[in-house]
Design goal:
The chain has a domain of 263 residues: Fic-like fold (Orthogonal Bundle). It is built from 16 helices and three strands. Helix 1 packs parallel to helix 11 and helix 10 packs antiparallel against helix 11.
Length: 402
C-alpha cells in the first residue's frame, strides 16, 4: 500500500532571470524576426488563415495526448454529433485556444482566462466535466498507472496549486523577458505545476500562443507549435523532464526551433491556399452557371474553413446575400465540398482541397522536425532519448503532459 507520496515542488519563478547562452540567444532572436515578419505579411488573412492554423494547432495538441479523429468526425462534432469523443475534445481544444489568445491580445493572461479556457476544453468530458474550470483538489501524477508508486513525475499537492499559479501569472505579466523565452519557460512551468486533473497539456501549449500574442510577436497568426512537438514526442517530453531538473536551455531551444520550422511551412501553406482559391474561382465560374452569382470574395467566405456548417454559412454571409441549397449542391457537384452528415438540418460539409493542404502542412512540419532531429541526434542515442522521455511501456503511459 502507498502510505506517502513524494511530490515535486517547482521553484517560484515570478522574479527570476535566466540568461540564454549566446548561441541560444542568437537563434531565438532570428526566430523572433522570422515570426514577426511573417505575421506582418500574412496579417490581412486573419479571418480565414487564423482559424485554419488554430484548428491545426488544436488538433496537433490533442494528438500529443493520443486523441485521434478524422476531420469528418470533427465536422460532425461541430454540429453536435458525438460519435467520436476525440473529435469532441478537438473541438473544445480549438475553442479554448482561440479564447486564450483573444484574451491575451486584449490585455493579459490571467487566472480567469486560463480557467475559462479549461472550462471550454473539458466541459463535455464525461469524467472531468464536473470540475472543468477549477484548479485540482486532488493529487495527480504522470505515468505509473492507477497509483503514483511508479509515477514518472508527481506534481505539487493540491493545496499548493493556487499559490504556484499566482507565481506563474506574475511571471507571465513581465515585459523584461524575451517573448519566446518567456513562452517556453511558462509552458514548462505550467506542466510542472499540473494545475488541473486533466487537460494540462493542451492548455499549457495554448499558453505559448497566448504569450506570443500578449507580447505582440503575433497580431493575427496562430503558430501551430504543437504540430512540431507531436513529431518528436519523446524529445519534447525529455525536455520537460530536464526543465524540472533545472535545465532551461533545452526547452527554450525546442520551442524556438518549433516556431521557426512552423513559420517556414505556414508561409508555403499560405501560397498553396492562394492557389486553391484561384482554382475554386475557376470551378465556380464554369460549373455554377447563371443561377448562382456569388463573387469570388463570397466564395472565399463560404469555404474559408475546411469544416463548413449551416450555422457558419448563415453567420458569415451578409444579410442581403442569403445562401441556398443550390450553392452547396453546385459546390458538391464540382468536388469542392463533401457532405459528412446525412440529416436534413444542422448539416456539415468538408472542403476537400483545404483539408488536403492542412494535412500536407502537418506532414511537412513532421518531416522537417524528423529530418532535423535525425541530423542532430546520433542513431545510437535514440533509445536513451526515448527512455528519458517516458516511452510507452507495460502499465504506463508515454508520459503524457496532460
Amino acid at each position: 500500500m502507498v502510505r506517502s507520496v513524494r511530490c515535486s515542488l517547482p521553484p517560484r519563478i515570478a522574479h527570476r532571470t535566466w540568461t540564454a547562452p549566446p548561441t541560444t540567444a542568437d537563434f531565438v532572436s532570428r526566430v523572433t524576426e522570422r515570426l514577426t515578419e511573417l505575421d506582418r505579411r500574412l496579417g490581412d488573412r486573419t479571418a480565414t488563415f487564423d482559424l485554419l492554423l488554430a484548428r491545426t494547432e488544436a488538433v496537433s495538441s490533442s494528438r500529443i495526448e493520443d486523441e485521434h479523429a478524422t476531420l469528418d468526425d470533427y465536422a460532425r462534432a461541430l454540429v453536435g454529433i458525438r460519435a467520436n469523443g476525440s473529435a469532441t475534445a478537438m473541438v473544445g481544444a480549438t475553442s479554448a485556444l482561440r479564447a486564450m489568445i483573444d484574451d491575451a491580445g486584449r490585455g493579459g493572461i490571467t487566472e480567469r482566462s486560463v480557467l475559462d479556457a479549461h472550462a471550454v476544453l473539458m466541459r463535455d468530458d464525461p469524467v472531468d466535466g464536473p470540475v472543468a474550470g477549477r484548479w485540482r483538489q486532488v493529487q495527480n501524477w504522470i505515468g505509473g498507472g492507477a497509483s503514483p508508486r511508479d509515477a514518472a513525475y508527481v506534481p505539487p499537492p493540491a493545496d499548493d496549486v493556487a499559490e504556484a499559479m499566482d507565481d506563474l501569472f506574475a511571471f507571465l505579466s513581465r515585459d523584461d523577458l524575451d517573448p519566446i523565452v518567456q513562452a517556453a519557460i511558462a509552458h514548462a512551468q505550467f506542466e510542472s505545476v499540473h494545475p488541473f486533473t486533466d487537460g494540462n497539456g493542451r492548455i499549457g501549449r495554448a499558453l505559448v500562443n497566448a504569450v506570443l500574442r500578449r507580447r505582440s510577436l503575433t497580431s493575427s497568426l496562430v503558430v501551430p507549435v504543437a504540430a512540431a512537438l507531436v513529431a518528436d514526442r519523446a524529445g519534447y517530453f525529455a525536455e520537460l523532464v530536464r526543465y524540472r531538473d533545472g535545465h532551461v536551455d533545452g526547452v527554450v531551444t525546442l520551442v524556438a526551433a518549433a516556431i521557426g520550422t512552423v513559420c517556414d511551412e505556414v508561409e508555403y501553406a499560405a501560397l498553396r491556399l492562394d492557389e486553391i482559391e484561384h482554382e475554386r474561382a475557376a470551378v465556380h465560374s464554369t460549373s455554377c452557371g447563371p443561377r448562382v452569382t456569388h463573387d469570388s470574395a463570397v466564395l472565399r467566405v463560404l469555404l474559408a474553413d475546411p469544416v463548413l456548417t449551416e450555422a457558419a454559412i448563415s453567420a458569415a454571409l451578409p444579410p442581403d446575400l442569403p445562401w441556398t441549397d443550390a450553392v452547396i449542391d453546385d459546390l458538391v457537384d464540382a468536388g469542392v465540398l463533401r457532405p459528412v452528415t446525412e440529416r436534413r438540418r444542422d448539416r456539415a460539409w468538408v472542403a476537400s482541397d483545404v483539408l488536403a493542404e492542412l494535412d500536407a502542412l502537418a506532414e511537412r512540419i513532421r518531416a522537417a522536425v524528423v529530418s532535423s532531429t535525425s541530423a542532430a541526434v546520433p542513431a545510437d542515442s535514440a533509445v536513451d532519448a526515448e527512455a528519458v522521455g517516458g516511452a510507452a511501456g507495460p502499465g504506463r503511459s508515454s508520459m503524457p503532459s496532460e
